[in-house]
Amino acid sequence: MDLPHYELRCQRCDETFEDDGFILECPKQHEPALLVADYKDKRFEPDSSAEGMFRYGRWLPGTRLLSGAGSSVTYKSEKLNRVVGLLNVWVVFNGYWPERDAALETPSFKDLEAWTVLSRIPERHQEVLVLASAGNTAAAFARACSLNGVPCLIVVPEAALPNLGFPDAIDPCVKIISLTGFTDYSDAITLADRVSQIDGFFPEGGVKNVARRDGLGTTMLNAVEEIGEIPHYYFQAIGSGAGAIAAHEAARRLANDGRFGEEPPRLVLSQNLPFVPIYMSWKSRRRELVKIDEADGKKQTQQMAAQVLSNRRPPYSCKGGVFDVLTETRGDVLTADNFEALHAKRLFEETEGIDIDPASAVAFATLLKAARYDGIEKDAMVLLNITGGGRHRQRLDKELIPAQPALEFDENEILLEETPERIAGLFR
Ligand SMILES: [Zn+2]
């Protein structure tokens, strides 16, 4: 039998161990820390025979073969550089854009994490995968699980439903639970946690799942494969920050290879006002996340243009989390309000001819401001992560079938004793 192509390592105690396909935390008792995958192969070598993002399979955990995976697309646009006022802005585009061969069907960079998470689950395992999502992750998992017959339960706040439309009907092995009323993503996490503890169900794990992060990290691999070097700056809007942590971990592997530059990019992360807990925490330069009042948080969330960026429990403080990756890269957190995001969204669409999600517009808005006021060197290599690209365009090209929730619960039902059992009943 082949030896596995990676092992897991704890970033707190440095212990290494074999992956069983499910482990999310170090078995030792200590402060929380993210596990990372250490790959045997230290050289960056894409496999051109593999489908979509699996061309980076040497740096992805798991071995299960799946069909239907797409990939990011990286390009440089002179027009966009003129608009920003810099010379070396590159876009890593995640979404649907046939003219650029971009074909993430769901269409955000969360599409990338679903494939690697499923690939890590051992073959013939039949328990139900449980996850919570603010929208894009739900769409990604619903489609990937449906195409590959993997039983899956997805909990989303109701606001996410309009973005759950698919070119093909979703297989009944995927069940969606919608939370109505005064609920948000954090409520979805609470309910998903409860169901995942029932026999026959297991948690996907979110940011703790190395497969999720290394899937998201393929955006960085794709960019560096195309550009030929590691960028100096990486701009991305964040809710939890999982994508930014992932980009940094991928960049660290590329830096270790040595052929693409020696430093991971400075992370310039962005949040959408008025809900900006990571910005507030980072500006106080403390490892602790600021306290977020639940009711205030929910109210602020409902005022955001980019509601997918609304995570009240981001992995900020844990070892290897957002605080650490910002510190390691001398990074920063910026903000954009709804007005700035809307302006940036229109500007991107006019310049590039493709629509983008509000979250990407937040990142683009902060790039515009940083280029103008914050003294980014004119020729610095800048990578802008665009996610949720071409959502509107996809709807013009294809008829999408909306997903139907199997059950709905309001804010009072989330903590009821019988609620998890009612959900489990859907699979029995
Ligand atoms: Zn440990």
Whole-number total of structural domains: 2
Uncertain regions spanning at least 5 consecutive residues: none
Global structural class: alpha/beta
CATH architecture label name of the largest domain? 3-Layer(aba) Sandwich
Instruction: Report the CATH C-level class of the largest domain.
Output: Alpha Beta
| Number of helical regions | 14
Query: Based on CA inertia axes, which overall geometry fits?
Result: globular
Ligand inventory reads:
zinc ion
Amino- and carboxy-terminal Cα gap: 36 Å
Rg from alpha-carbon coordinates? 20 Å
Strand coverage percent: 15-25%
Q: Helicity range of the residues?
A: 25-40%
Question: Outline of this structure?
Answer:
Helices cover 33% and strands 18% of the residues. By secondary structure, it is α/β, with parallel strands linked by helices. Bound molecules: zinc ion.
Write up what this structure looks like.
The protein has helices spanning 78-84, 110-120, 136-148, 185-196, 210-216, 218-227, 242-257, 277-283, 294-302, 322-328, 338-352, 358-373, 391-397, 419-424, and strands spanning 6-10, 16-17, 35-39, 73-76, 89-97, 102-103, 128-132, 152-157, 165-166, 174-179, 201-203, 233-237, 266-272, 332-336, 382-389, 401-402, 407-409. The protein has 428 residues and is of the alpha/beta class. The chain has 2 domains: 73-107 and 211-395, Rossmann fold, CATH 3.40.50; 128-199 and 400-427, Rossmann fold, CATH 3.40.50. Strands 4, 5, 6, 12, 13, 14 and 15 form a 7-stranded mixed β-sheet that branches. Strands 11-7-8-10-17 form a 5-stranded parallel β-sheet. It has a 3-stranded antiparallel β-sheet with strand order 2-1-3, with no helix packed on it. Helix 2 (110-120) packs across helix 3 (136-148), helix 5 crosses helix 7 (242-257) and helix 11 (338-352) packs across helix 12 (358-373). Bound molecules: zinc ion. The site of zinc ion (ZN) has 8 residues, from loops.
